[in-house]
């Protein structure tokens, strides 16, 4: 059969004269054409639907870990109750050991943070240690910063079979009263350090010939003298804020340019101190080496009074569910965020570690009246620090996630 004959089969007069097997073939051909037309119609949907998530040309939006909700832990976790460590961790202050100090409920441990639209990477202590080999992780700030430091120590130590090999370089015990602690992980040649500097800037005597009522000044334009120890660190986590209020600065005056300014307010002084921090970071830290985080303000949860006027939190057993009862964002955060934005193009590894919103829910996570042995019976409740294990573990999970997004690894 030549080409003309084949073509002629398509004409109407010959349609019913074709053989049976050719009729069947044409039927399947027509079906194929219809199916192909359907695929063409739905292909755009497939292309921009689930397949788009695998496209290398589609930009990946960085997850906002600060926005989400607390959900109950499942029992599928490989660790007990989903926790990363237990209260027996030897790096915990006695004041943060909730069960040892008499707290009976454990429901506050059964929650994990679930960001909106993404997941927190599972914390991998072995990976974190390996990425930090021959490095330094340094926490600088107040006692809430120490809370986070102890949490990370316990989280990382879970990857060390013989935890007794981890030691404090200067032989100091774990106690709240030491201003500087440096814990060494010998296998990784890594130190994880805590430096207590509540204001970040210098607290000292006033200039000569100052009025007699001025005994102490906060030098907003002079960075803390300990800062020379922090140069060369691979990860630095700063925090401040809890001491920057009217109560904690009673009797203190603010000093700038070696002159006391008796009219400078607390938040104005706070802003100036952050400028001093910014200047130090940009001048003294290597932008190719140091990963710098400034953690946001950690909320307090005193109810029916302030910390020194009968404020309580011991009746809280679960996270807050009524957002109307949550406090607005601390004004300190606005100052911190603004300064970090100013640094973005000169030091790309400076990040805002925003934990305020997720922490505001957790009114149930404080030591409250369950204080360490020896605390006076009439001592105020502690509704600012955190029980461990507890909320600061989530801060460190976010810290780890942020470092992963920055391809962190010591050189």
Automatic annotation (TrEMBL):
Primary site of residence: membrane
Key word Transmembrane present: yes
Domain Trichome birefringence-like C-terminal per the UniProt entry, residue ranges: 120-401
Bilayer topology term: Single-pass membrane protein
InterPro entries in UniProt: TBL, TBL_C, TBL_N
Annotated Trichome birefringence-like N-terminal domain residues: 61-119
Organism superkingdom: Eukaryota
Keywords recorded for this protein, A-Z: Membrane, Signal-anchor, Transmembrane, Transmembrane helix
Any Pfam family hit: PMR5N
Subcellular location: Membrane
TM region positions: 21-46
Family assignment from sequence similarity: Belongs to the PC-esterase family. TBL subfamily.
Protein name (Swiss-Prot/TrEMBL): Protein trichome birefringence-like 9
Gene source species: Camelina sativa
């Amino acid at each position: 059969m030549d080409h003309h004959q084949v073509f002629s089969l398509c004409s109407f007069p010959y349609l019913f004269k074709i053989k049976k097997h050719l009729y069947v073939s044409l039927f399947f051909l027509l079906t194929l054409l219809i199916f192909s037309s359907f695929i063409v119609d739905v292909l755009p949907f497939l292309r921009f639907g689930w397949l788009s998530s695998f496209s290398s040309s589609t930009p990946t939006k960085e997850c906002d870990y600060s926005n989400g909700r607390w959900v109950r832990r499942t029992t599928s976790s490989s660790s007990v109750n989903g926790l990363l460590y237990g209260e027996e961790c030897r790096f915990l202050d006695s004041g943060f050991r909730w069960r040892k100090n008499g707290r009976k409920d454990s429901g506050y441990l059964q929650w994990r943070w679930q960001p909106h639209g993404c997941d927190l990477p599972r914390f991998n202590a072995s990976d974190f240690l390996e990425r930090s080999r021959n490095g330094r992780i340094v926490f600088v700030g107040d006692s809430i910063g120490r809370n986070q430091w102890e949490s990370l120590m316990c989280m990382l130590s879970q990857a060390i079979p013989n935890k007794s090999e981890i030691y404090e370089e200067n032989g100091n015990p774990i106690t709240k009263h030491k201003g500087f602690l440096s814990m060494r992980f010998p296998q990784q040649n890594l130190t994880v350090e805590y430096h207590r500097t509540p204001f970040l800037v210098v607290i000292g005597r006033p200039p000569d010939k100052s009025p007699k009522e001025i005994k102490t000044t906060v030098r907003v334009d002079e960075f803390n003298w300990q800062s020379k120890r922090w140069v060369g660190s691979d990860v630095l986590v700063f925090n401040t804020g809890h001491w920057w209020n009217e109560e904690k600065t009673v009797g203190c005056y603010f000093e700038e340019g070696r002159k006391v300014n008796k009219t400078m307010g607390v938040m104005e002084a706070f802003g100036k101190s952050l400028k001093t921090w910014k200047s130090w970071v940009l001048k003294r830290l290597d932008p190719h080496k140091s990963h710098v985080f400034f953690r946001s303000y950690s909320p307090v949860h005193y109810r029916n009074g302030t910390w020194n006027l009968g404020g309580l939190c011991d009746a809280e057993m679960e996270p807050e569910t009524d957002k109307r009862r949550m406090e607005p964002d601390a004004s300190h955060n606005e100052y911190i965020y603004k300064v970090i934005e100013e640094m973005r193009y000169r030091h790309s590894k400076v990040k805002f570690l925003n934990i305020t919103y997720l922490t505001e829910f957790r009114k149930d996570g404080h030591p409250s009246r369950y204080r360490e042995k020896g605390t006076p019976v009439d001592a105020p409740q502690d509704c600012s620090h955190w029980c461990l294990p507890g909320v600061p573990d989530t801060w460190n999970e976010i810290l780890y996630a942020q470092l992963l997004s920055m391809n962190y690894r010591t050189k």
